[in-house]
Give the backbone structure.
Amino acid sequence: MEQSDASTEQPSPPGTEPAELAGRLRAVIQQLLPLLRGQSRHRDLTPSRTAALAALAAHGPLRISDLAARMNIALSTTSRMVDLLDSFGWIARRPDPADQRASLISLNDDGLALLRAVRRETTGVLCERIDRLAPDRQRLLQEALPALEELVEGSSP
């Protein structure tokens, strides 16, 4: 019979390997996002348009090139999206004082009101789901938030 060496490392409990955690987190996010999007009354507001409005709310006014970099999408795609956001009346454009050939894009009052409404709706959906969880599961979710927030802290340029 072999004796166990107390100094050897014990295997990690199931579910704690980074690759497994990443896979489970990705799967949950992929299921959660459509649930949130499906609740919105704002059918013209796609996920990428919502992300653009959120970036402008958090970091604007921005040049189109800066918005593209922040969203990690091609400049031409961002330019078309900005044109759409403008056609919906959700943003304002003004000349960049540093370079009159460039424009600065920012949310206007309608865009900000829309973003706030969508955030209220999605927060409400999440609140209902979280409220159905047992108190110990709610506490675990609360304790996980700092780690989740750390995951996204370094994602913006």
User: Anything to note?
Assistant: The first helix runs from residue 18 to 38.
